[in-house]
Recover the amino acids of this structure.
């Protein structure tokens, strides 16, 4: 169906096209100088000392969890980790792949973020652009990129640059942090545990290397980094444009939403509403269907009582929200 108003329209344009062409013309498209440049500038934007770019936010979350295991942080020694059911599957699948057991928790009906608890073994999600309450050692910040969020933070913040996010590299993610020991491990971990990065081995002639530990293949490339650099330049005005739309939605609908990534509303009959909007050329979406009700996660959801999550899971609809 051709929508008059799609759910998403990216801001990829001539600047990104030129940046990609420049990388291709340079003869170096693998992880290298553009990746390093983006890491520096992204870290500065979110107020972190360091950033480690990855091929996705899913990879960023997984590597962050593995680092906490390497450091044997006391609160991550437990196999159970609090996590919202009201999130995308990536948040929970990485816990399982990292050897943890998800402990599904309910969310607040206003912010849509996981309800704060005294448990330090938790993985909060900054949903719809709202910041989750409470402290943690790792955050899923796929829905939120704000200036200085990571300033003075001891946590690992995991970001997404997927197509639907406030800024996009088409794909990609990053971990922002203030821990020098962690950043050195994470940069090796994303590249098979090798002591010398791809660019160092090939561009600088440092052919001799060591595999310091068994790592993973979750690194980005300079093409996606080049796109991300151009998007980062646009992020402030893109967020300002999103904020104006959120304000207009709030004014017209009598709501007080604050996030600038998604604009959720509650409807009585979602299938009927979605059909109604589609026939009028407006594409809506749903964020999210509760994970504890999915076949893949039922064994982890026994005994879960999540009334807010289940209510939102039946009634929530996301309206179009993008700068144009």
């Amino acid at each position: 169906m051709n929508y008059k108003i799609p759910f998403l329209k990216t801001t990829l344009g001539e600047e990104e096209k030129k940046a990609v062409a420049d990388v291709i013309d340079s003869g170096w498209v693998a992880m290298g100088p553009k990746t390093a440049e983006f890491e520096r500038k992204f870290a500065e934007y979110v107020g972190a000392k360091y950033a480690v770019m990855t091929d996705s936010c899913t990879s960023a979350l997984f590597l962050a969890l593995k680092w906490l295991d390497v450091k044997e942080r006391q609160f991550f020694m437990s196999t159970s980790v609090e996590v919202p059911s009201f999130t995308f599957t990536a948040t929970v699948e990485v816990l399982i792949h990292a050897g943890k057991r998800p402990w599904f928790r309910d969310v607040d009906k206003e912010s849509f973020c996981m309800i704060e608890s005294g448990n330090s073994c938790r993985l909060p999600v900054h949903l719809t652009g709202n910041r989750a309450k409470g402290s943690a050692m790792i955050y899923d910040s796929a829905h939120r990129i704000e200036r200085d969020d990571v300033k003075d933070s001891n946590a690992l913040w995991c970001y997404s640059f997927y197509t639907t996010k406030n800024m996009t590299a088409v794909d990609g993610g990053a971990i922002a942090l203030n821990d020098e020991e962690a950043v050195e491990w994470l940069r090796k971990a994303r590249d098979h545990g090798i002591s010398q990065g791809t660019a160092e081995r090939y561009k600088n002639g440092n052919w001799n290397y060591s595999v310091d530990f068994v790592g993973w293949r979750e690194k980005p490339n300079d093409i996606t980094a080049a796109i991300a650099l151009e998007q980062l330049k646009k992020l402030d005005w893109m967020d300002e444009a999103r904020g104006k739309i959120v304000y207009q939605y709030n004014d017209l609908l009598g709501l007080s939403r604050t996030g600038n990534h998604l604009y959720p509303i509650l409807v009585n009959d979602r299938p009927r509403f979605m059909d109604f909007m589609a026939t009028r050329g407006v594409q809506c979406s749903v964020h999210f269907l509760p994970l504890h009700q999915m076949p893949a996660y039922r064994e982890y959801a026994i005994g879960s009582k999540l009334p807010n999550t289940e209510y939102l899971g039946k009634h929530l609809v996301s309206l179009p929200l993008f700068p144009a």
The longest strand covers residues 50-54. The beta strands are 50-54, 80-84, 101-105, 138-140, 156-160, 173-177, 263-266, 316-319.
